[in-house]
Design goal:
By secondary structure, the protein is mainly α. Helix content is 63%, strand content 0%.
Length: 200
């Protein structure tokens, strides 16, 4: 004869049958990563919510819950605002090393990149124009405002060109020697190059 035990007053039985709760922020990040990955390979019009959901390991209705619709999701994907905040979040005298670290750590450890998706703008037609405009306003111009001395706008664009070159070699061309080198060693070598352009 089996007996049913109940927990003492004030305690509850463990919720063994309850499904684990999804971490909303981690899920949103996974969806954004999936959408960025697909945007780098396909035209915006050809990317379906199902394809994003499959890559992110979620359901399409969950994407709608978090972002509203495909256009709202891609408005986030094509914005550099949050990424630029992290990329530029260091004192000017340390900014070169910081930017290189953000770029490499993002790619190596988080599968994300603060600026590299701009190189896929030509694939995107009208959406590519939005991507370019956002990049100029949210990254290039914002960096230029941080700089002192002459030719701040030019130096900002040269800095970003230098970082994009590193990002392409590390994340797309996947240079074997570069990827076999410790990130801190790359920062030691590459950071001063970036810093020289930041400093008048």
């Amino acid at each position: 004869m089996s007996t049913v035990t109940t927990p003492p007053p004030g305690l509850t039985a463990p919720a063994a049958a309850a499904a684990p709760r999804r971490d909303a922020e981690a899920t949103k990040a996974a969806i954004l990563r999936a959408a960025r990955h697909l945007l780098a390979r396909y035209a915006h019009a050809d990317i379906t919510l199902k394809a994003i959901a499959d890559r992110a390991g979620v359901s399409a209705p969950l994407i709608l819950k978090y972002f509203g619709n495909k256009d709202a999701l891609f408005a986030r994907v094509m914005s550099f605002e949050t990424d630029a905040t992290g990329l530029l979040d260091a004192p000017l005298e340390d900014l070169g090393r910081h930017m290189v670290r953000q770029l490499l750590v993002g790619q190596a450890q988080h599968g994300a990149d603060p600026i590299l998706r701009i190189i896929f703008a030509p694939l995107q037609g009208e959406q590519g124009d939005i991507l370019r405009a956002n990049f100029r306003a949210q990254v290039s111009d914002r960096l230029a405002l941080r700089l002192t001395g002459p030719d701040a706008g030019l130096r900002a664009e040269l800095v970003l060109s230098t970082l994009l070159g590193l990002g392409v070699m590390y994340g797309i061309a996947r240079g074997t020697r570069l990827r076999a080198t410790a990130i801190e060693d790359i920062i030691d070598r590459y950071g001063p190059t970036v810093q020289a352009l930041l400093t008048p």
